[in-house]
Write a structure and sequence with these properties.
Helix content is 0%, strand content 49%. The chain has no helices and eleven strands. Strands 2, 4, 5, 6, 9, 10 and 11 form a seven-stranded mixed β-sheet that branches. Strands 1-3-8-7 form a four-stranded antiparallel β-sheet, with no helix packed on it. The chain has 124 residues and is mainly β.
């Protein structure tokens, strides 16, 4: 049974940091590219950061470049998102998603598995 379980969300003040984790199980983790998405109330879901299956290639939403870092540990079947210099506009539910391909994507339709999400709230 495939599972993606996010953790690490919470409430922080602007300028603070959080580290999200996404633990995968039930599939061959190192053959899947991974992406972090987020969705704020009343807004469409957007891809925030993506990484290929091997971990050597990453891409970011322009709004988070220089503040967020995506990484993965294939030995631990875990994906991470280090979020620094958080802003109120980063407030959203954050989801990890897995795509059975080597290359990364920001298109929701490309993904096979999704986590339940973890809430990030940034106060001003």
């Amino acid at each position: 049974q495939v599972q993606l379980v996010e953790s690490g969300g919470g409430s922080v003040e602007a300028g603070g940091s959080l580290r999200l984790s996404c633990a995968g199980s039930g599939f061959t983790y190192n053959t899947y590219a991974m992406t972090w998405f987020r969705q704020a109330p009343g807004k469409e879901r957007e891809g925030v950061a993506a990484i290929n299956s091997g971990g050597g290639f990453t891409a970011y939403l322009e709004a988070v470049k220089g503040r967020f870092t995506i990484s993965r540990d294939n030995a631990k079947n875990t994906l991470y998102l280090q979020m620094n210099s958080l802003k109120p506009e980063d407030t959203a539910m954050y989801y990890c998603a897995a795509r059975r391909a080597t290359g990364y994507s920001f298109k929701s339709a490309d993904f096979d598995y999704w986590g339940q999400g973890t809430q990030v709230t940034v106060s001003s």
